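Example 3.2
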Amino acid sequence: MIKYGANIPNYLVCFPDTMFVENIEYGERKTGSGIWFHAERMDYEGNFIRPRWAKVKYKADNIRNIDVGDYILIDHGHWSTSLDVTIGNIEQKIWFISAKSYKNGVMAVTKTMPKILEEYGIKE
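Structure, written as tokens:
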């Protein structure tokens, strides 16, 4: 995790074809039956490399097929390290999606939160 100490007045302005997401599925999770899965750590064989869902927080104006608030399924490795920022006096953890990642990494989009996010304690 990177702490930039950035204090941004109200919102981020994204460069073309870029976006910031929140609530990416990562870390410990508990299934409905009470089984805990430890935070994932990638090993040398590439285990835990998989696409993940995240919620779009900010996006560039030229992105027309995805709206703020949508959930995107993004291929592994197409997001940045988490960024801790303060936007409008609210501390947030967000991830950057580059133009290349938007074009080559976004696999699906949905308006409703995928059920798997509930296993990570993420709520609407």
